[in-house]
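As the next step, I selected for study a record pairing a protein sequence with its backbone structure tokens, which the following lines show:
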Amino acid sequence: MGAALPLGDPIPAAGPLGKDTTWSADAPFSVYLHVPFCRVRCGYCDFNTYTAQELHGAPQDAYAETVRREITLSAAQLAARGPLRPATTVFLGGGTPTLLPAGDLGRMLHGVAEEFGIAPDAEVTVEANPDTVVDGTAEALAAAGVTRMSVGMQSAVPHVLASLDRTHRPENVRSAVNSARAAGLQVSVDVIYGAPGEALEDWRRSLDAALALEPDHISAYALIVEDGTKLARQIRRGEVVPPDDDLQADMYELADALLGEAGYDWYEVSNWARTPDSRSRHNLAYWEGADWWGYGPGAHSHIAGTRFWNVRHPAAYAARLAAGESPAAGRETPDATARRWEEVLLRTRIREGLPVERLSASGRRALAALIADGLVDGAAAVHGRVVLTLRGRLLGDTVARALTS
């Protein structure tokens, strides 16, 4: 059901935004729509998700209208602080958004369009489990305004899928990709490396299978053991071996080599795209510190430097909105030190890097040693950008700490 929410300041009755919160009419605005429903919870997942047996009074068929109530409430709060601006990216994530009928997802998008507008060139992404993309699904999503589908492939190897508790049929990945492409959607494929029992050759097989689909974009994520998950309990009991850092590093290097040879350029540590236009603009908004509002139980938001998050359970979320109350559970406004750390950590993850001028004096002094250690690109630094090398991408947290110490 997801990790516990962070601690934070209480939410005022007027909502999560402060009285002095303002936002620029020229800045981009993104929307995240969380759909917390899953048929089965994967053992490694710590996202805020629920199976049908865990909903307890929060029916799926009422969910779209509940989210629309939050969209309307948020628009009123934002309109009091400046002109509303259209969403430049929208991301329907989960959970498994495609467990809901395409019409329900369309109603959520229509709510965004009614209150804020959606820019004519907006990127609108939906995450999809391959088994849920049946005849007509992709066409209905495209008609609702979706422009991009992110297909959860994870692996092409049956024993690896089993270790991750993934239940989709591997052959349905190609079917989902073909359906999305026929509907005119851009296609991204997600894969995970470092699962229990996964060998380097298993990972190569999955990469080859992903490349054979010829998607516009590929995301490759290292398996992380999160507290509170089934996988963490299995490792604690000695039932499975934890991910091996050295093997995961070898897997990342293999991914970067094979994807690069196939014409995909890395633009963020875990993401590769065929062309600049194929990059995930929504995820770039997170890494670049843009404004976004997250709708749904457990969703997080960032508006003008204030972060806030909603109550976790769908029933509690629905009850608050039915009463006309904000579903926000807590908020925080990071201080200058925390924001500097966050900017360095996030912006060094992307291909364009961090402007050297954004570093403190101590950060600039640390740069030379990082270049000498092969973690930061020396030529890019000469041109005023902190850009990670391949080795630096494997040690990104180490670089960020050195630049902010």
